Amino acid sequence: MSEPRAPHEIATVACIGAGVIGGGWAAYFLSRGLAVRAWDPGPGAGDRLRRTVDAAWPALTELGLAPGADPQAITLHPTAAEAVAGADFVQESAPEDLELKRSLLAELAAAAGPGVVVASSTSGFPMSDMAVAAADPSALVVGHPFNPPYLIPLVEVVGGRDSAPWAVDAAAAFYRHIGKSVIEMTRELPGFIANRLQEAIWREALHMVAAGEATPEEIDRSITDGPGLRWPVHGPCLTFHLAGGEGGMAHMLDHFGPSLKAPWTRLDAPELTPGLRDDMVAGAGRSAGGRPMAELVAERDRAVIAVRRAVAAARAAGDRA
Amino acid sequence: MSEPRAPHEIATVACIGAGVIGGGWAAYFLSRGLAVRAWDPGPGAGDRLRRTVDAAWPALTELGLAPGADPQAITLHPTAAEAVAGADFVQESAPEDLELKRSLLAELAAAAGPGVVVASSTSGFPMSDMAVAAADPSALVVGHPFNPPYLIPLVEVVGGRDSAPWAVDAAAAFYRHIGKSVIEMTRELPGFIANRLQEAIWREALHMVAAGEATPEEIDRSITDGPGLRWPVHGPCLTFHLAGGEGGMAHMLDHFGPSLKAPWTRLDAPELTPGLRDDMVAGAGRSAGGRPMAELVAERDRAVIAVRRAVAAARAAGDRA
Question: Shortest Cα distance from B299 to chain A (angstroms)?
Fold first, then answer.
């Protein structure tokens, strides 16, 4: 077994692929005071990467840079193997093409030093499917960010069948160390968690446009001026806990349960068994952390007001620019 | 044909049903300087309504009250017909039970004065299904809010088969007049727009909990720390326009199109026909309003930073309380 790098020992990260996601990762790593070694075979990749980092830097500065953070601490290399040489962590953000990921991850696993994790930004491929060409897949894990990786905290971490537990743990520890909100999944699931939820919305939206039921603009406004204002503060489960009023999730499920059978989306609902009902009620209770409903409502109200103002100010700043 | 009330002529609103939604509507109407006549047959409804209004008032004050807004300008009445007498607009927020809605809306339509709209807060029933018991269903429309109605701007307005065009237009005009973000739908669709999208997320979440794939807490955090941070500023379509980088929605669909076939959610995707692709690209272009990608990215970044800070401050204020 390799000795994994401890999070604070990681000083240099290789960014393999420097598009929207890879470039966003590079900007974030730089902002945390790390050095970045990049590779991207696309034409003009170096210029594009520079633009991505420069565009992100004001936001990262506003959020607070780590001591020593330097937007110039980035080098572009002619091969992936050269970019990986000497790196303490590898973040792969190549195009979402399974065959490409398979051969690239095999190459990265071979080039990475002992104890160096190779994390893939894949939006949904299980690592068990991507790792098949690697001679030693033990250091390969999924580290799935959200766009833009320099601002959205979530990273979903999950290993494949042949990933070593140390690699999964080291990836999660590193991401947490640099300020990410990590969900460490114990089983592989296509699309992980957040993309499954986001994809459900997206597919329903595409169906609605295809059927002439709504326009993309109506869909967008229905979210930005509607439930989207609640989701930064309370996720779907806690949101519906509050929708139940003083009776919380239990009342909500008992009251709106029948609408699960209604044709409100093209996705069929699961059977609302007593067991599922109880799991949702217990989960809402844990998410609420024992706080009384009035406190949750007050928190949501403060947050929604602040979010509305924040978005309005961000839009107005653009209008003035 | 009745002469509809012009928005500025509406001074008194009847709130039929005073639970979480009806009480939230009442608080909002009061904050806009309107008087409210309420009816709710439940035990303790008066006290509950008072608590709902009092809990919402600090938030409404913070957002800015209309001149003359008075949290005491609300009366509770022993019958629905009495609450509706003299009201210029009726908002029905009874439990989500089709038979109950049918008989109640028939009663409200009969009791309302000429030119007075009766709007239902139903979460998803089409008005054509709810209006069947009314002798004259012309004034019956859907005016679907989001919880809490006093903070979330979106209201979806749509008529049924027998709704009069004047009633649909008058409802939309009134809601806009009092500061709501109105989507006026031209065809009935179960769940309207936003609830179809929200329900798709919710059903996928329930499936995941039922299958042991994720916990409610993981689901909530995957949204609050992930895509939920983007949705108050850019809806699902504009979000994916930005995910395409400089190539926008067109690049995104061409690059991630294959993932529509991946098992990323239990909802089957539509066929991504050239027509649907072009509709999405054109819609993203209209949503972007001709603004270059760099400007959209800068707007999103400003907003996400501000939203993160707003939520953190709202949570910290609770911890201090």
Answer: 6
